Fold this sequence. Notes:
The chain is built from 22 helices and twelve strands. By secondary structure, the protein is an alpha+beta fold.
Amino acid sequence: MAPDIVQPTSQQLKRVQSDSRRIWSSHANEANQQTITDTSFCIRDNLGPAPVFPEGWLCSCHLNHPQAEVLGSSLYIQGHACWNSSTRDCRQNYKEISQTILVGVPGPSHITLQEGTHFEDWPGTTVQNGNYLAVFTFAWAYIFSARWVEMCSHRGISGQYGHASIFYSDNALVTPDYLELGRVSRDAHRWWKALLVAGGGWNATVNFKGSIYHSPWSAYTIPVGGAAFAKDCGVTAPDSKSSTRYLIELCDHMGCYDQCLAALAIVILLPTSRHLTLPKPKPCTPRRSRSFMGNRCSIAAEAALIPYYMTLSGNTRGVMALLCGAFYDPSIDCRFVSAWLQPAFDVVDSCVHSQNPVHLSNIMSARQPKLAWLWLGAIIIGLHLPAIQRSRYGTPLINLQAAAWTQTCHTFIQSGPTPSERENIARADECRLLFMLGAEGHCHTPICPWKPFGFVPIEHAAIETRLHYQCDHNFNYAGWRWKGKTNIDPGYRRPFWSLARSAVPWLRQALGGPSSRGMEREADKPLASLIASETATRSIFLWYRSDGWPQGEEFIWTHPWLEVDDDDESEVSDGQSGGQDLESRTAGTSRVTHWISSQ
Length: 599
């Protein structure tokens, strides 16, 4: 009886399972359970080549405008991510991938302030006796929205399609009893009161072709008895620079810089999570931090990067994909997904069930240092739960643009070529080539991040592969082009010192992976199921062989894991590729095989 090449043996599964347990248990054992790690407050140091939000976006960019009568419609800017290969002498070394960026929503986000939440007693990097997380969140939401209005149209150019404005109310605003501002100007005092009024004390809107859209970062607390929006009372609303100054003044007064940075992460997540709960503010005792000037400069530096954060934040699918990417590992092929994921979720589920969000945040920080800040924000507002659920069965969201903008890897498409003999090519490399070349049936990103296993003889490879397999293609991000524009934005470029500092955690992992010091010696649990492996294998191979199967792969397409039920059609299509079933695909096998054998 021929060996089963598709389904791994129990010994192979145990080996992968043991490696996964070692890595994830090490993260769990070394992660602090009481205090949030400093890495979770490093945002700008971990920003990759994200494109800047376009100046004059309302006047000069192509906007995707749904019909005004559609309830709940949103406004998007269209753009293209530009990719190239390392082989310049190849004519097929350039590819563009379309992406929409959210720029307008039907209404502000709803934030509920609640007592008894996990982060009510702030577990920051220093001992603090108060919680201003919600206060800082409303401040950043206003600053983002003010910047959104300011970037609406070029200076001296009036909008042809509409206009944007920001205002706030000054009627009967009472300073909350938890708010200790210190000695601030009258304008600053009025601004803070407007931010914290229930029902919304300010509005940032744009009128586009007769429809009103709100800033994706606008937010207000829900008052008792329903929502009540601010009405323009003729009071001049401060611009983004003035409001940033007010925010820094409060940070200086209270010394809550880490809460302020955590709130920034929350606001970046606002377009993705429109209804959220935050701890009800608690009074803080004013104190001056020892690193006063450094912290002050840090907040100002973060505010300067808001136009980059706006683009990243507006890619809502990409934000969720970044969270899902924490469970991906480039060394794992589709057959071993179940063995890799089970130990990971044993650790993660333990934190979720024990209601220890600080420990979970630090575990994910160790796993994905570049996105520690994003995980902290997601855990605070509960956005981590849908990301975990989506990743559990081996079909996480994928977004190549968001991965490039944060310099993280979430799919085998981003990996380099596999060393192989001239007579063979790795199936993962052929998939990558077919996608890069835009071959028929392979124009869209595979929805499965896990690489296919094994090699295929060159004479059995696709036509496009045979023409380009020696070009040594790498899939590299080159920049971003807004639709209707010709110039390519290479994106944010960090200072050299910032690059070196953010590389330290990754260098430590590359030199030896997570330490096993203090790790408990425990036996691996039996695998509960192989559903994740089966799903991943079926998904990637049905994308890979969408136009038929070559000779010698009968052992794959006849395997039970490749059987397609009606419920599995979404795995193949999902907006990514054609909806052919397995029978129609294999019907083309003889045609493809005949062509290949004749060459």
